[in-house]
Design brief:
single chain, TIM Barrel, eight-stranded parallel β-barrel, alpha/beta, binds 3-methyl-2-oxobutanoic acid
Length: 272
């Protein structure tokens, strides 16, 4: 297992497709700067997703809606600088692609040229299919994102599960088929029932990337800060594999106490 992703060659859209065809799972993780990119890739991530979750994770916004194209380019550039062979996907932020295929193309050109990333991700299913087709026909690698689409939180009113009733399920099946037919390279399925994600994965020729969508997807993605335990709270589908927040605050608290008591910088002993 893991024969395809373990080669020394850079990861490409073709590698990811081949892995999914061979039943080899791929690992996607968000990264927002050179440090998180370096840690994520060294530890085994195949794909680094510069998610617009950076608005909440790094910039302190309460949603992804305020994130700008300039901010995405700034963070994606840092991730590209640090990557070695991982595929780097950059989220297109709210308002930079929904108006028209032409607007989307102009925004994607800026992101690709200025950051050096490999692909872009856009939220939306059937209604975005003409845009995905327009971009794909012009040589852009597009990852689609359906199910819970955080940029539409104001419309839906919550970050809850999507596709839970019959109408939602039918709409998501149509969304998945439409983005696949339009030429998307892959599709993120966020917070949808596991059986529905399994059906979509079986129906599509392109890789599915699950987050809160069960174990049948071709790949899994998580938010870096949720995974390592840096977030103040995690969504129910994103387990923390470490408690980095506690480790970091313990270190700062010990150092702070040493400064106040005069033990630092006099103390010579090793602290870790
Ligand atoms: O913005 C993001 O981090 C994402 C992932 C959660 C898929 O879109």
């Amino acid at each position: 297992m893991n024969e395809i992703m373990n080669t020394k060659k850079p990861v490409t859209a073709a590698t990811l497709l081949r892995a999914s065809q061979c039943g080899e799972k791929t690992v996607w993780l968000t990264a927002y700067d050179a440090l998180s990119a370096e840690i994520a890739e060294t530890a085994g991530a195949d794909v680094l997703l510069v998610g617009d979750s950076l608005g909440m994770v790094c910039l302190g916004y309460d949603s992804t809606i305020p994130v700008t194209l300039e901010q995405m380019i700034h963070h994606a550039t840092a991730v590209v600088h640090a990557r070695k062979k991982a595929w780097v996907v950059c989220d297109m932020p709210f308002g930079s692609y929904q108006q028209s295929p032409q607007q989307a193309f102009a925004s994607c050109v800026r992101v690709l040229q200025q950051s050096g990333c490999d692909a872009v991700k856009i939220e939306g299913g059937e209604p975005m299919a003409p845009t995905i087709r327009f971009l794909a026909d012009r040589g852009i690698a597009v990852v689609a994102h359906i199910g819970l689409t955080p940029q539409s939180v104001k419309k839906f009113g919550s970050y809850g599960k999507r596709g839970a009733d019959e109408a939602g399920r039918a709409a998501l099946l149509r969304d998945a088929e439409a983005v696949g037919a339009a030429g998307a390279i892959g599709v993120v399925l966020e917070n949808i029932p596991a059986e529905l994600a399994a059906e979509i994965t079986a129906n599509l020729d392109i890789p599915t990337i699950g987050i809160g969508a069960g174990g049948s997807c071709d790949a899994q993605v998580l938010v870096f800060n949720d995974l390592v335990g840096l977030s103040a709270s995690n969504p129910p589908f994103a387990p923390a594999y470490a408690d980095a927040r506690q480790i970091m605050s313990d270190a700062i608290a010990r150092w702070s106490a040493d400064v106040k008591s005069g033990r630092f910088p006099k103390c010579e002993e090793k602290t870790v």
